[in-house]
Amino acid sequence: MDKRFWSSRIQDLEPYIPGEQPKDRVFIKLNTNENPYPPSPKVLEAIRSAADETLRLYPDPEASQLRQTIAEYHGLTPEQVFCGNGSDEVLGLCFYAFFSPGRRVIFPDITYSFYPVYAHLFQLDFEEIPLNEDFSFPVEKFLRGSGGAVVCNPNAPTGRTLPLEEICRILEADPNRVVMVDEAYADFGARSAVELLNRYPNLVTVHTLSKSRSLAGMRVGYALGSPEVMAAVRCVKNSFNSYPLDRLALAAGEAAIRDVEYFEESRRKVMATRERTTARLRELGFFVHDSNANFIFITHPAVGGKELQQGLRDRGVLVRWFDKPRIRDYLRVSIGTDQEMEAMCRACQDILKG
Ligand SMILES: *Cc1c(COP(=O)(O)O)cnc(C)c1O
């Protein structure tokens, strides 16, 4: 491609590739970790009532009410909350706000693949620390000083969880660097690091309403941290786009956080289906990592990852395969409804017979 008019900053940039959103046919969609259940009816109601003549007005640039609601939910103050258009945006602003060129940022080699993209975009030095052979987290290697650390917990795409005691060790090893904990999947069975926030001023946790609150289409995410640290993210945001969340997203986000009962029920169903699917796939000879997320990471000794992905696609099931060293024989499978997972298991069985 002719890149004559592209800034020198982006000549070698490789953007993030999101999972496929098919338009041509109906698939059982287990490739992007969306929630199989709809958002709370109260969320839909809130969006409907926010869709009125006030849309001609800009939204609240500070997202004050949403931040108040999130703060109450977590037992924090609104100054400890920062909201953005999905946690991807929040992560991007955080990378810019906390990490400096020339000071190496560390994260695992197998983790959310957006982290190296942000690091490249912002011209940061970074090191991808290899996970252990069994994909457990090499805590010792995160105790060395660095310009910052990012930990996805539970990790994607492995689903494995790091206990809070280990996160404390990483925070304590170097109190002068920010440690970001991406908790996109923490609602599906991991212990959240939010309880550590008032003890560690260098901790930032990042959250999304896309997964456990069924709002991927709405784009709402947030970060939590000390007021001083959140002020840094606000400074970056207001230098880039001062009105990040629109009126409908603000209304939806608030209603979603408030409806605790619906949230509990929906995540309970996802976790129960995950356990049933894990058992079923192990019976079929799959190796399945124990997961605390709304997906499982699976491999089978008799079929390669790419082959299995294609076989599932031919049978109407979309899952995620990563063309990456060490995990080429693995698939990441989002947890759908019981029926969808049953269909996925049957398709696997069919492929294994062939
Ligand atoms: C899905 C995901 C996100 C981003 O979610 P948004 O939809 O942008 O809020 C962030 N981190 C991880 C690890 C994810 O899997």
UniProtKB/TrEMBL annotation:
Residues with the N6-(pyridoxal phosphate)lysine modification: K211
Source species, domain of life: Bacteria
Catalyses which reaction(s): L-histidinol phosphate + 2-oxoglutarate = 3-(imidazol-4-yl)-2-oxopropyl phosphate + L-glutamate
GO biological process, one term: L-histidine biosynthetic process
Obligatory cofactor(s): pyridoxal 5'-phosphate
Entries under NCBIfam families matching the protein: hisC
Assembly and binders: Homodimer.
Family as reported in the entry's similarity comment: Belongs to the class-II pyridoxal-phosphate-dependent aminotransferase family. Histidinol-phosphate aminotransferase subfamily.
Protein name: Histidinol-phosphate aminotransferase
Originating species: Flintibacter hominis
Lineage: Bacteria, Bacillati, Bacillota, Clostridia, Eubacteriales
Gene: hisC
